Request: fold
Amino acid sequence: MALSSDRDALLVTRVRAGDDSALAAVYDEHAGLVYGLARRVTRDEELARDIVQEVFAYFWENPDRVDLGRGTLRAYLSVLAHRRAVDEVRRHEARARAEIASAPPEQEDEPEAQVVAEAARSWRGKRVSELLGTLPAEQREAVRLAYYEGLTYVQVANRMGIPEGTAKYRLRAALAKLRTLLTDEAREVIS
Reply:
């Protein structure tokens, strides 16, 4: 164990001095471990290779961050690889959640969208268009973007330059007003 820690101390000292051959030696010795950890966490070969490059670039740029009094160089690189891999997985999951959130609403999730679209396409569409004209301009624009252009709440908010909650409120208020304005026959279609 002492032999390993002496070797680690020598390599870290050389990397701190800017010796790229010492970095190559550290890479040769530990790249497989770093790759394996990153691959296991991310389950993605390409991403794991990117993480290996990030870990060793970080080590090269910040060799003073290594504290051999707290553990070995192997342990340090392992922790660094694991943290980077977990960060990548979290970023990927956040991107996936954002894509789902910005996707157009499913028919089951937004029954009003289906009803408004059907009414607009049918003979009742003329009546709905007339009633849309009675809405305040902000509500009318939100309905047009959401139900005629198929935008999500987030996209409506971005397009109108308003917070998402405001876009939701405008759409809900518009639909509530349309429900009260429609004839009994049209109300049955929406209900």
About this structure: The radius of gyration is 29 Å. The chain has a mean pLDDT of 81.
